[in-house]
Amino acid sequence: MKHNHQSMPEIDGFIFDLDGTVYLGEAALPGAVQLIHMLKERNKRLLFISNKPLEPRQSYAAKLTRLGMPTSPAEVITSGYVLSFTLAQRFPRLNYYVIGEENLKDEMRSFGLTVLDELWDQDEHAVIRPTGIEAVVVAFDRTLNYRKLNTAYQALQSGCRFFATNPDKTCPMPGGGIPDAGATIAALEHLTSRKVELLAGKPSSVMMEVALETLGLPPERCLLTGDRLETDIRMAKEAGMYAAVVLTGASSRQQANTATPPPDFIFENLFEMMDFLYKPGGS
User: CA dist 109 to 93, 112, 143, 156, Å?
Assistant: First the structure.
C-alpha cells in the first residue's frame, strides 16, 4: 500500500472501473464483493464505468449482480451511454451513420437520436458522397467491413461531424487482443486528415462530466478506482477527483510509483483498499 494522505478524505461518491478492478472475466477480484457491500451499507453513492460500448448498462448491472454485487443499470455508465447522452444534449437533430454494433445503435435511438440504416444499395467501392449523413460515429465494431469504412470516409470527406465512443486500440480477449475503436479512428483520421471532435470514453473529460452529473456530487467528494494509469487515473486527476490504482489489472507497482500524474493511493487489491477505508480515521 502507498498513499499520499494520512487517512482517506471524506468521500461520498465512489467510481469503479470494471475489467481488472472489480472483476476479471467471470470472477470478482479479491475484496470487490465485500467492499461494494460495505460502501452500500454506509449509503455511499456508487458508479461503475466501462469504455466498452458493446453491451447496454443493463448487461453490466446484471453481471455485477450475478457476481455478488447487486447493481442497478442507473449505477453503470459506458462509453456508448455517455456518447448517446452527450449527443442528445449537444447535437440532437443530426442524422448519424454509425460504425458500431446493434446495441450501440439501439442506445442512441433510445435517446431520440436518428441512426441511419446501412446504405446497402450503395456500391461498396463508390466515390459518391453518401446522402443524408450529417455525422459519423465510430465505435468498437466486430462487423466492420470495407463498405462501412468507405461510407464513413466519403461522409467525412463531405464535411460531416466526427464523433467516437472510445480510443482503445485493442480489446483484451482470452489469448490476446482484437482491434478496437481506436484502430478504426486512426484509419479514418489518417485517410481524412481530420481529428475526432468528441470522444466519450476514458480518458475523456466527457465521461467524468456525465459521471458527476449522475452522482450529483462535486469532484472533490469523489474517488475513482481503476487499474489503468493512462486512462482511469489521468481522467480522475484531471477532473479534480481523488484517484486510487489497484494492481489487479494493467498496471504494475513500479509504473504506479512513477506515474504522472500520480495516483493518491496505490492498493494491491480492493481488500487492501477496504482495510484502509475502514480503519480508525477512515471515511
Answer: 12, 5, 19, 22
- Strand 135-138 vs strand 95-99: parallel, antiparallel, or unpaired? parallel
Amino acid letter at 105? K
Among 19, 9, 30, smallest CA distance to 270 is for 30
**pLDDT by residue, tens only, the chain of 283 residues:** 555 555 567 899 999 999 889 998 888 999 999 999 999 999 999 999 998 888 889 999 999 999 999 999 999 999 999 999 999 999 999 999 999 999 999 999 999 999 997 665 555 566 555 678 999 999 999 999 999 999 999 999 999 999 999 988 887 666 667 888 999 999 999 999 999 999 999 888 999 999 999 999 999 999 999 988 888 999 999 999 999 999 988 788 888 888 888 999 999 999 999 988 876 444 4
Give the global pTM.
Answer: 0.85
